[in-house]
Write a structure and sequence with these properties.
Layout: H1 3-19, H2 21-41, H3 46-78, H4 81-85, H5 92-121, H6 130-152, H7 158-175, H8 187-193, H9 197-210, H10 216-239
Helix pairs in contact: 1-5, 2-3, 2-5, 3-5, 3-6, 3-7, 3-9, 5-6, 5-10, 6-9, 6-10, 9-10
Transmembrane segments: 24-42, 54-74, 95-120, 132-155, 162-180, 222-240
Keywords: Antibiotic resistance, Cell membrane, Membrane, Transmembrane, Transmembrane helix, Transport
Family: Belongs to the ABC-2 integral membrane protein family.
């Protein structure tokens, strides 16, 4: 990968993103509204709100970035933009890692806004620091980007891209430990949960909620999620098609 080409790709994607006001609103406003909904749902149960809102600060970026990225890449393919780009010195990995970094920067803004609202307006209380929560949320968002890029290779229309949401994202949300502790699941469900990257991201957030200082488990979980991001991006590069008929 060329640093110059990668940098130009990141700038191009960020410019496209900033010109799409609906996507910007989805990235920034929707998580804040959903957190507000959670706050009023559990207004008289602050401990329940703390547990769920902390996890949702990581789940929201994952889901939103998965959806936005899979559709954005499909549009570049169907419009012929991707085919034109790949006739230049731009390589597939430059493009996909550019997407990951650009949307990671967008996720940093998203996570910062959501965390500010959660901690200072909705009184979210965690033992660990806000910075760690934002870091995990950004890693989660990049995971959503990587999986979205990979899944978009198998979609021919935007509707098909959206259909990957219940296949890829929803099972991870159900089995990540948010609703039932993973060690209390049936053995076969726990085994499935153990191979899903979102489970480790949620565990890392729970570590922040329970411990004032970063733990070895937290860093291990972040390493696992980061490894899954790299694997998903490489697979996306291997399956990326220049154009959709």
């Amino acid at each position: 990968m060329s640093a110059r080409i990668l940098g130009a790709t990141i700038v191009r994607i960020l410019r496209q993103l900033l010109h799409d006001r609906r996507t910007v609103a989805m990235l920034i406003v929707v998580p804040a509204l959903l957190l507000a909904l959670l706050y009023f749902m559990y207004d008289d149960q602050p401990m329940v709100f703390d547990r769920i809102a902390l996890v949702m600060l990581g789940v929201f970026p994952f889901v939103i970035m998965f959806l936005v990225t899979s559709i954005a890449m499909l549009r570049e393919r169907t419009s012929g933009t991707l085919e034109r780009l790949l006739t230049t010195p731009l390589g597939k990995l430059d493009l996909l890692f550019g997407y990951g970094i650009a949307f990671g920067l967008a996720a940093a803004v998203q996570a910062s806004v959501a965390a500010a609202l959660a901690y200072w307006l909705f009184d979210l209380d965690t033992a660990g620091s806000t910075g760690l929560v934002i870091l995990i949320a950004v890693v989660n968002a990049v995971l959503g980007v990587a999986l979205g890029l990979f899944c978009s290779a198998f979609a021919r229309t935007e509707f098909q891209a959206v259909q990957f949401m219940p296949v890829v994202a929803v099972p991870q949300i159900l089995l990540c430990g948010l609703f039932v502790s993973r060690d209390q699941m049936a053995g076969w469900l726990e085994a499935i949960s153990d191979v899903l990257p979102l489970s480790y991201a949620v565990e890392a957030l729970q570590e922040v909620g329970a411990h004032a200082d970063p733990t070895a488990t937290l860093w291990r979980d972040l390493g696992i999620v980061g490894g899954c991001v790299v694997v998903a991006l490489v697979l996306a590069a291997a399956t990326l098609r220049r154009r959709t008929a």
